[in-house]
Amino acid sequence: FVTGTNVGKDVKASKLLKEYDRVILACGAKNPRDIKAPGRDAKGIYFAVDFLKATTKSLLDSELKDGNYISAKGKKVVIIGGGDTGNDCVGTSIRHGCASVTQLEMMPQAPAKRAENNPWPEWPKVLKTDYGQEEAIAVFGHDPRIYQTTVKEFLKDKNGNLCGLVTVKLEPKRDEKTGRVTMTEVAGSEQKMEADLVLIAAGFLGTEKYVADAFGVDLNGRTNVATAEGAYETSVKNVFAAGDVHRGQSLVVWAIREGREVAREVDESLMGYSYLEVQ
Prior knowledge:
The chain is an alpha/beta fold. The protein has two domains: 13-29 and 208-271, FAD/NAD(P)-binding domain, CATH 3.50.50.60; 34-202, FAD/NAD(P)-binding domain. The protein has seven helices and 13 strands. The protein has helices at 13-19, 48-62, 83-96, 131-140, 209-215, 244-247, 252-271, and strands at 23-25, 31-32, 45-47, 76-80, 100-104, 145-146, 149-156, 162-174, 181-185, 191-194, 197-200, 204-206, 239-241. The strands form four sheets. Strands 3-11-4-5-6 form a five-stranded parallel β-sheet. It is globular.
């Protein structure tokens, strides 16, 4: 059993499959959800993780002196997406010295207190103001979040640089046939907004394509590595998948659980039985 011995070194999938009896894919779900709107090719639009990662690396390497990061200094920043990643982008942009920061969220604002249909001990679905939003309120005097809003078009100047965007309001509508509620555009609600840096923090779809292609595994409709229900072996014999690469972005406790279960399944496939317990 080998793990962690080739950190920072590329190893081809074919080599792993040749040298090892079983391979477990547990490499996360890092394929970012994009915003497919006209003008997406404008210069100045980045995925949130790329922005945050570059800042962290430059900070650790040189305290930002090497300039090898995406700077928000003096820029009008718009962050698309709520959640922890969006909040981190708000805080980081402020620390860079941005001119302004706005955070667009598709969903309605959560209530300040628990709703009747969200009783304890369920996770409280209430309004959370995290450190990034708190810093924005302290610096700019208002909460950076705009709810029920998304981007309809990115605007660019004659040189192809991002100079603004067109937003549209959203409202929840229930499909009478399926009962599913989706956020739909409100006709005539478009507005223009200045922006010269956009950070996309809209979540993740599943495994990165190069991982799936390298091992030749099938993906499901959510672009996670596909397995039979309740099992972990993929469409490729002797290749297994567990954690976010298998179930999509989720909590670390699920990754731990699936790690134990896939270990037992691999043990059974090698030995014909297993004494490993999953608790």
